Amino acid sequence: MAYLYLVIAIITEVTGTVSLKASEGFSKLYPSLAATISFIICFYFFSLAMKYLPLGLSYATWAGLGLVLSTVLAVVLFNENLNLTGIIAIVFILIGIVLLNTVGVSK
């Protein structure tokens, strides 16, 4: 269940971040509400995940996958640019997350 909680936290964090961008500084009602609600849900499920997973592992996974997914959605939804250096950085983040979750941290 811990990883399910973490996945929900990551998805809602990314939803909140994308909604925050779409809210244009909280000037648009529905994206602003979506961001606020998403972040509340995110932190609730993140706190549940951290009851069962080590802090370093849960935070690195949450932040890393949130960053990767947010970057991909920024390119797709907001036409932001991603150069080769950014792609390489994302690959390293993903490698780090996989290593951390398979051999890096134990509770």
Automatic annotation (TrEMBL):
Q: Which UniProt keywords apply?
A: Cell membrane, Membrane, Transmembrane, Transmembrane helix, Transport
GO-annotated molecular function: amino-acid betaine transmembrane transporter activity; antiporter activity; choline transmembrane transporter activity
Q: Name one GO biological process term.
A: glycine betaine transport
**Entry GO terms, CC:** plasma membrane
- SUPFAM superfamilies tied to this protein: Multidrug resistance efflux transporter EmrE (SSF103481)
Subcellular location, record wording: Cell membrane
Q: Topologically, how does it sit relative to the membrane?
A: Multi-pass membrane protein
List all membrane-crossing ranges.
29-47, 59-78, 84-105
Name the domain of life. Bacteria
Where is this protein chiefly located?
membrane
InterPro entries named among the record's database cross-references: EmrE-like, Small_drug/metabolite_transptr, Small_multidrug_res
- Record's family? Belongs to the drug/metabolite transporter (DMT) superfamily. Small multidrug resistance (SMR) (TC 2.A.7.1) family.
PANTHER family (UniProt xref): MULTIDRUG TRANSPORTER EMRE, SMR FAMILY PROTON-DEPENDENT DRUG EFFLUX TRANSPORTER SUGE
Q: What is this protein called?
A: Multidrug efflux SMR transporter
List the source organism: Staphylococcus equorum
